[in-house]
Amino acid sequence: MKIDLRSLLAGEIHTLPLAFSLGIEETDEPSDPLYGVSFCGPAEVTGEIVNTAGYIRLSLRLSVPYKTPCARCLAPVQGLFSLDVERTVVTPRQAEDMEEDTEDEYLVTEDGFLDMDELLTDLVSLNFPFKILCREDCRGLCPRCGADLNAGPCSCDTKTQDPRLAEPLKALLERLKKEEAEEKPSDFSK
Q1: Dihedral sign, Cα of residue 122, residue 127, residue 130, residue 131
Q2: Cα 49 from Cα 54, distance rounded (Å)
Q3: 3-class SS string, the chain
Q4: Under a CB-based contact definition with an 8 Å cutoff, are residues 68 and 48 in contact?
């Protein structure tokens, strides 16, 4: 979505209201923060751009419905992700005088237009929660049988030892018992 700021930059208007939809595509790349998230509709963006004596400020709110599996039990979770965005809008000439470490705080116009698609898509990707749970106290899945522990305990034997540790733990226990027996004084003096 390209926003035409020419009348705002010329001082003809002081406030430019914003209301538009933005499609956010799903990703097949496992390294992408939005992998596994499907958006149930377009992102709805509302806000305004205000010019106060040459100081131009963008304020907007983005809301998009999503569906993703719970990070612990894989149950489907639906919700609404919202994000507030505030940036100062500058012309290319003003951008030349800025320091590099403050570039993310500003949006640079291009020929009087402001391209919002890439900015908003990147912000959703950067700010979307890393893991989403179906509920705060989700117990997840049993690591042995894969049963949903939210539905109740599984039938796995919790006393079963991990076979990788069975022998080392058995040897350690025997050594500790032997050391304990050697440290106890014998009570033959009675």
Answers
A1: negative
A2: 12
A3: CEEECHHHHCCCCCEEEEEEEECCCCCCCCCCCCCCCEECCCEEEEEEEEEECCEEEEEEEEEEEEEEECCCCCCEEEEEEEEEEEEEEECHHHHHCCCHHHHHHEEECECCEEECHHHHHHHHHHHCCCCCCCCCCCCCECCCCCCECCCCCCCCCCCCCCHHHHHHHHHHHHHHHHHHHHHCCCCCCC
A4: no
Residue type, 51: N
For the record, the structure tokens of 18 come out as 């914003």
Q: What is the pLDDT of residues 129-152, one digit of tens each?
A: 989 999 999 999 988 888 999 999
pLDDT reading at 188 higher than 70: no
Rg (CA), the chain: 30
Buried b (16+ CB within 10 A) or exposed e, 124-136: beeebeeebebee
Q: Is the pLDDT score of 102 beyond 80? A: no
Measured between alpha carbons, how far is residue 140 from residues 4, 38, 68, 95, 98 in Å? 49, 21, 15, 49, 49
To 10 degrees, the CA torsion angle through 126, 42, 34, 142? 130
pLDDT in tens, 45-84: 999 999 988 889 999 999 999 999 999 999 999 999 999 9
What is the distance between the alpha carbons of residues 40 and 37, in angstroms, rounded to a whole number?
A: 10
